[in-house]
Amino acid sequence: MYRLLKKISFLTFSIFFISLPIFAGTLDSYVYTFDTDELLVSSQRSLNVLGLYLKYYETGNEEYKTAANQTRPYILSSLEPDDSAALNVLSEYQPGNEAESINKIEILLNNYPDSVILNAVKILFNFEVWEKSNNMEAFKKILSSIDIIENAIGENPFTIYYKSILTWEESNLQEKENIFQNLEKAFFSYPSNRKIQELLIVQAFELGKYERVKQLSGDYVNRSQKDERIMFLIALSYYNLDEKSESRNIINWILQNSNKKNVLSKSYELLGDISVTSSQKINYYKTAIDLDPQNAEALAKLGITLYEGDKTDTNDLTIARIYLTKALMYDPNNPEIKQTLNSIDRRLTRKKSSTTLLPLFIVISAIFYVVFRFGSEEGSLKRPEGGSRKDSLTASKEEKN
C-alpha cells in the first residue's frame, strides 16, 4: 500500500513538473488552446473569462463582454498581474480600434516584457491590422512577439499557427512543404486544436494534397464547430479526387448551415461542375451569380456552357458573350475567357454577314434580272423598225385588214 501511494505521489509530481512550463501563468495556457469555443467550455474559469472577452473581440457582441465582466471578480485571486492587465485591455477594446489597444499593450510590456499572454494578445491585434492592410510594421511586431513567447516557453500551437500564415505567401514550394510539415508536427502533438487542423487543411489543399485533405476531413466533419469555408475546401478536394457523391453531400451541408453569400455562391458553382446536363449546369451557375454577381468563375462557366450548348443560336451566343465579358472584368488575365470571346465574336460576325449580305445580294441579283429582262423585251419590240421593207409592208396590210 505504501509503495502504491509512493508511486502515485511520484506520478502526480512528475505530471505537475512536466506541466509547469506550460501553465506558468494562469492565462498562459491560452497559447495551447487558442480556439475561443474551446476556451468557453474549459474547466478553468479564468480561461472561460478570456474566451468571453475574445468572443466579444471577434463578434463585437456586447453580451459576451458583459458576461465576462460579471464573472471576472470570482477569478481575481487566481490571476497574475500581467493576466489582469491583458483582460483589462480586452475589456476596454472598442470594435475596429486595434491601434488604441496595441498602444495600451506596448505600455504594459514595458513592465512585463516577457509576458506570454500580453504578447499573445498583441499578436492578435497586430494580425488584424496586417490582414486588413498588409502593414509591414504590424508584421514585424508579430514576429517579435512570437520570438519572445518561444524564448519563454518554446514552440507552441499559437506561435506555429501565426508564423505559418505570415511566412506562407512569400515562400517557394520547398519552403511551403517545410511549413506544412512543421504544422503537421504541431497537429500530431495537439490533435484537438481546431485552428491548427483548419490551417493544415488549407495548406494541404493549396499544395494539391487532396488525399491528405480527405484524411484530415474524417475527424473535422464530425466536429460540433465547423467553418463552412473549410468544409468547401474539403468538398472541392473530393471533387478533384473524382468522388463527386461525397463532394455533393458536403455541399448540401454547407447550403443548410451557411449564411455567407460568397461561400454559398461557390457551393452552387461546384454543384454546376458536378452536374451532368447543360440545363442543370446553367441553373446552378445562375444561382451562384445571383448570390455573388462578382463570382468570375461562375460567370465564365455559365458563358462557356451557353456557348458550347448551341453554337448556331445567335441569342445564346449573344448572352454567352455578355456573361464572359462580365467575367473578364473581374478576372482580366484569364486566357480561356479571352479565347472563347474571340470565338464568339468570329461566329457572330459570320452570322451577321450571312443575315445582311445574302439578302442584299439577292436584291441586287433581282434588280439585274429585271433590268436585263425588260431591256431584252424592249429591244425585241423595236426590232421591226430596223427590219426589211417587205416585213413592214406586210405588217401595214395586216393592220388595214
In short, what is this structure?
With 401 residues, this protein is an all-alpha fold.
Bin the helical content. over 70%
* Structural Rg: 38 Å
Shape: elongated
State the domain count.
3
Q: Beta-sheet strand percentage?
A: under 5%
- Strand segment count: 0
Q: Class by helix and strand content?
A: mainly alpha
Count the helices. How many?
Answer: 20
Name the average pLDDT. Answer: 84
Which spans have pLDDT < 50 for at least 5 consecutive residues? Answer: 1-23, 392-398
Topology:
Layout: H1 2-19, H2 36-40, H3 45-59, H4 62-71, H5 81-91, H6 98-111, H7 116-133, H8 136-153, H9 157-168, H10 173-189, H11 194-206, H12 210-220, H13 228-240, H14 244-257, H15 261-274, H16 278-291, H17 296-309, H18 314-330, H19 335-382, H20 389-400
Helix pairs in contact: 3-4, 5-6, 6-7, 7-8, 8-9, 9-10, 10-11, 11-12, 11-13, 12-13, 13-14, 13-15, 14-15, 15-16, 16-17, 17-18, 18-19
